[in-house]
Amino acid sequence: MPLNVGLVGAGMIGADHARRIGTAVAGARVAAVTDIDPDRAAAVAASCGARTAASDREVVDAGDVDAVLVASWGPAHAESVLAAVAARKPVFCEKPLATTAEDCLKIIEAEQASGRRLVQVGFMRRYDTGYRALKRLVDGGDLGEPLMVHCVHRNAEVPESYHSAMAVQDTAVHEIDAVRWLLDDEITSAQVLFPKRTRNRFDHLRDPQVMLFETASGARVDVEVFVNCRYGYDIRCEVVGETGTAELPPPAEPAVRSAARLSTAVVQDWKDRFADAYDTEIREWTAAAAEGTASGPSSWDGYAAAVVTDAAVRSQQTGDVVPTGIGRRPDFYA
Ligand SMILES: NC(=O)c1ccc[n+]([C@@H]2O[C@H](COP(=O)([O-])OP(=O)(O)OC[C@H]3O[C@@H](n4cnc5c(N)ncnc54)[C@H](O)[C@@H]3O)[C@@H](O)[C@H]2O)c1
Ligand SMILES: O[C@H]1[C@H](O)[C@@H](O)[C@H](O)[C@@H](O)[C@H]1O
Fold first, then answer.
1. Whose CA is nearest to atom 18 of ligand 1?
2. Residue whose CA is closest, atom 11 of ligand 1?
3. What was the ipTM of the complex prediction?
4. Ligand 1 centroid – CA 74 distance (Å)
5. Mean pLDDT of the chain
6. Closest ligand to residue 159's CA
7. What is the mean pLDDT of residues 162-170?
8. pTM for this one?
9. Measured between alpha carbons, how far is 269 from 259 in angstroms, rounded to an integer?
10. Which ligand ends up closest to the CA of 173?
11. pLDDT value, residue 15
């Protein structure tokens, strides 16, 4: 019997995950799809042989839905995740887990009360082969004690609806999770600085931004976010340890020698850059969900990302170093 997945949110990434479940994941199928835009729900349902449902509640409560995939807008995530946890169904939630730390805590409490892990958050970098290789080096002690991490997150461009806080909440949130995971260390403070602004995009947007984080052990992390860099999608990460450094490998692209030039194409967007990571992420989610549980990035990771992004957004107003106030991770999430 395949795992029957109920999809909440049939936008860009929801449709992509539905396609992925149909083509790249064995032992799972999409059974029901809902979206507040019924046309989108109908189109995605038709593309994967599923039925449509009127609401997230209907998806969660359906007798033939074993697990729920939430890919709606961030502000709608908490309600759907809480409903799935209440129904004791495994749930994958695209980032962010919730848009407030308070809602993340409600999910943590409900999940702990259920007695087992049910929630996986969509931080797909943890499934990227390059990041996994970096993690093995850090964990294996090959670099000595990690002291610093230098990160770059560049998008070719963003739509007009993208605003300055999203550079933290939507974009740097990936580095925030990846660095916590790589170093196995919590982020305790955040600061955001604004360099000279690009003239190439909207007046309302501060772009680029430089974000500085400190971890509980004293490691320092810098993240350059530049979401209108024009030339492509560019993700970099270098861990500097006491005895060595390691850098994320660039995506494998052929080196082309032609017309007296040696060149390599730059990947253009996140869907291509992390395509394999998304496949692995959803495969590992469905495998755990088939066992009635969840693995990978947890509700605690979703909460930690929320408190760090809150601190960084506050720092955007003043430039101050803002403590994150992160507490102790419950043993449930050890
Ligand atoms: N992990 C990643 O790299 C990654 C990449 C892109 C998007 N995301 C996340 O995925 C989520 C969706 O992003 P997107 O780019 O697909 O956005 P999108 O706007 O294309 O799609 C969101 C969909 O959710 C629907 N929706 C909103 N509220 C709903 C509700 N209450 N019930 C049902 N449907 C609802 C909208 O109608 C829309 O179709 C966001 O949280 C985003 O941050 C993650
Ligand atoms: O929602 C997207 C997505 O998370 C991408 O991975 C990131 O590079 C973009 O900056 C963000 O807007």
1. 11
2. 71
3. 0.98
4. 7
5. 97
6. 2
7. 96
8. 0.96
9. 27
10. 2
11. 97
- pLDDT for residue 46: 98
Give the domain ranges of the chain: 3-125+276-298, 126-270+305-312
- Give the CATH fold of the 3-125+276-298 domain: Rossmann fold (3.40.50)
SS3 content of the chain, % helix, strand, coil (to 5): 40, 25, 40
**Residues at CB less than 6 angstroms from ligand 2:** 155, 170-171, 174, 227, 270
Residues 83 and 261: their CA atoms lie apart, in Å, by 56
What is the C-alpha separation between 20 and 29, in angstroms, rounded? Answer: 10
In this structure, the dihedral spanned by the alpha carbons of residues 29, 128, 155 and 219, taken in order and rounded to 10 degrees, is 130
For a mutational test of ligand 1's pocket, the pick from 47, 70, 94, 100, i.e. the residue with the most ligand atoms closer than 8 A to its C-beta, is 94
Taking the CA of residue 8 as reference, the ligand 1 atom at the shortest distance is 33
Is the fold of 3-125+276-298 the same as that of 126-270+305-312? no
Closest by CA position to 32, among listed 3, 8, 11: 8
For residue 187, the model assigns a pLDDT of 98
pLDDT in tens, 125-145: 999 999 999 999 999 999 999
The bound ligand whose nearest atom lies closest to the alpha carbon of 155 is 2
pLDDT value of residue 281: 98
Q: Please confirm whether the linkage preceding 195 is cis (ω < 30° from 0).
A: no
Pocket lined around ligand 1, Cβ cut-off 6 Å: 8-14, 34-37, 40, 56, 71-74, 76, 94-95, 122, 124, 170, 270
Over residues 235-251, the mean pLDDT reads 97
What number is the average pLDDT over the span 274-303?
A: 98
Q: Which atom of ligand 1 is nearest to the CA of 41?
A: 39
Separation of CA 220 and ligand 1 centre (Å): 32
Question: Per the CATH hierarchy, to which homologous superfamily does domain 126-270+305-312 belong?
Answer: Dihydrodipicolinate Reductase; domain 2 (3.30.360.10)
DSSP H stretches of helix in 50-100: 56-61, 74-86
The yes-or-no verdict on residue 201 having pLDDT over 90 is no
Q: In the prediction, which pLDDT does 1 show?
A: 86
